[in-house]
Amino acid sequence: MTVTAPARRLEAPGPTSGSPGGAPVPDGGSGSLLGRVVTQLRTLTGARSAWVVRVDEAAGTWAVDVGEGAGAPPEDLVAAVVREQAPVVVTVPDATVLAVPVRRGPRVIGVCAVAGDADVALSPTDRGLAELFADYAALALVDHGPLGGRTLLEAVRQELAWVERAGGLRTDLVTVGNGTLDDARAEEILRVVQEALVNVVAHAGAGRVQVGVLHGPGTVTVLVEDDGSGFDATGHGGLHEAASGAQRGLVAMSARARRLDGELEIGTGTGGGTLLRLTVPCGPEPVASGRARPSVLVAARRPVVRAGVVRQLQLGAPDLGMVSEVDLGAAHDLTAACRLLGPDVLVVEPDLLPADLTAALDALAALPRAPAVVLLAEACADHALRTAVTAGARGCVDPDDGERLVEVVTAAGRGESTFRPDQLGRLAAAPRSRGITAREREVCDLVARGMTDRQIATALRISAKTVEKHVGSLLRKTGARNRTMLVAVGP
Predict the structure, then answer these.
(1) Are 206 and 212 in contact (CB under 8 A)?
(2) Sequence-separated (6 or more) residues with CB below 8 Å from residue 282
(3) Spatial separation of the C-alpha atoms in residues 412 and 347, rounded to whole Å
(4) Within a domain: residue 16?
(5) Sheet hosting strand 208-216, strand order edge to edge
(6) Contact 8, 79 (CB under 8 A)
(7) Does 266 lie in the same domain as 340?
(8) Which of 41, 171, 193, 337 is surrounded by the fewest CB atoms within 10 Å?
């Protein structure tokens, strides 16, 4: 294909010439793989110049990694190859330049280019040689550090921007906590994210993909979830379907996880698509994986409150797993974060929830992995307290009461509700005009003592089936979801 100018350009790294012979380019030397690729490509095609260009399509930039001969490839040529996803030939005043894409799956990660004299046409054989050496160039390019001076989050954001452009997918990035990763570890994690995203674009048939990055004490966890065709464990070791290209698939990602001393879990996500979870130790004294212990997500408006709660739980509750914080400004963001991150306990300030507290807590309870909710407030009005308890909240605690905070959150992680005596008294003192009968009050009192239906039946000299009906009636009239909540709200 011959073009004169592309519709969209990539940004070149500094001044470039419109034709070969302008800016100097790096010489890879004969010892490197890219250096050998360039040398052999130039020799076999008889070209006067040859280059291997690295393309970062997500960042919209390119740079010449290795070159032999004069100058650099025309900037328009590199942009045209990325746009067309196919070999491109351009003619400039003193040369004819052929460029072929270097691929990694559906992504163009580089360009192999050769320049010959303007009066000598490049043959189909020359094109075939360039495409052959592009495969070798791909091996070297994917093993080169992918961060390029970016942080992990910056790189992930740019990868998601590529997903939106290349696949037309909607994307979300959720970050929890802050942490520092060495470049080697961050690059391996980014490669796993890239492999997962390439697979989603190429094979998942998805409309949306979410990435979560969670910094915990001594660990970092990365999640990639899509709403596509789902995980096929028997599908040739791939996520959705076997895909060509270097360093992609379960085998490659598992190998990276092992090199990081991490854990890789891949299965079906909440929407029927694929959920990938990579947990990697990142501190001098990594903690054990918290998946078997309750994980906690703290949501508060002020960073100092979030950090304080996280610190108190980390120091005072060793039985908890990962304790993380999230900065969110809207209830729908909170629900989305819980859907993706799947905490066992959510500690949240009430003002991050909408005025309809019942609807907000119902939305959280409807999640496939519903968290136990603990409200974080210095004081909770009687109406709000009763509404929260009726909707399933496990407790309400002052963030400054560290000992009580640890007690309530730990109990919530066990599925238990914990309220102070004064809170229970306020709940019991609430209006009782609910049509509750004297017998139902008797049953409720015995439930509060921890008696079973059979024990209550014996004490009241009625059948266990009748006790069961009374308990069901109490649950309906009080709005309680279970016996524990029934005891908390009282009759």
Answers:
(1) no
(2) 179, 180, 181, 185, 215, 218, 219, 220
(3) 10
(4) no
(5) 170-176, 208-216, 219-226, 274-281, 263-268
(6) yes
(7) no
(8) 171
- Residue 166, classed as helix, strand or coil, is helix
Q: Please tell me the distance from the alpha carbon of residue 74 to that of residue 55, in angstroms, as a whole number.
A: 14
Q: Which stretches within 21-111 are classed as H helix?
A: 33-45, 75-84
8 A C-beta contact, residue 355 and residue 324: no
Name which of 419, 483, 399 is nearest 448 in CA terms: 483
The distance in angstroms from the start CA to the end CA of the chain is 80
CATH number at residue 160: 3.30.565.10
Whether residue 320 contacts residue 290, with contact meaning beta carbons closer than 8 Å, is answered with yes
Neighbours of 3 (CB within 10 A): 17
The reply to whether 208 falls in a domain is yes
CA distances from 167 to 160, 197, 242, 264 (A): 10, 10, 18, 25
Which 3 state secondary structure label does DSSP give 323?
strand
Tokens of 113: 């280019």
| Least confident residue range of 150-159, 235-244, 390-399 | 235-244
What would the two tokens of residue 318 be? 């060793």
Is the separation of the CB atoms in 373 and 385 below 8 Å?
no
Of 236, 227, 172, the C-alpha closest to 204 is 227
Q: Which of 239, 271, 288 is the last residue of a domain?
A: 288
* Vertex 339 angle, CA 299 and 486, to 5°: 75
CA dist., res. 113 & res. 53, Å (int) = 8
CA distance 214 to 296: 12
Q: CA–CA separation, 66 vs 430, rounded Å?
A: 77
User: Are 394 and 377 within 8 A, CB to CB?
Assistant: no
Give the distance, in angstroms, between the CA of residue 310 and the centroid of all CA atoms in the same chain.
21
Give 305's contacts (C-beta < 8 A, 6+ positions apart): 349, 376, 399
Q: What is the pLDDT of residue 181?
A: 82
Least confident of 416-430, 434-448, 469-483: 416-430
Show the domain range for 471. 431-489
Of 145, 143, 141, the closest CA to residue 66 belongs to: 141
Q: What is the pLDDT of residues 105-127, one digit of tens each?
A: 667 888 999 998 877 777 888 88
- Residue entry with tokens 């092992």: 258
CA gap 394, 321 in Å, rounded:
18
Of the residues 427, 442, 464, the one at which a domain ends: 427
Instruction: Please check whether residue 378 lies inside any domain of the structure.
Output: yes
Looking at the structure, do residues 386 and 456 belong to the same domain, yes or no?
Answer: no
Q: Which residue has the tokens 């990055």?
A: 213
pLDDT, position 29: 45
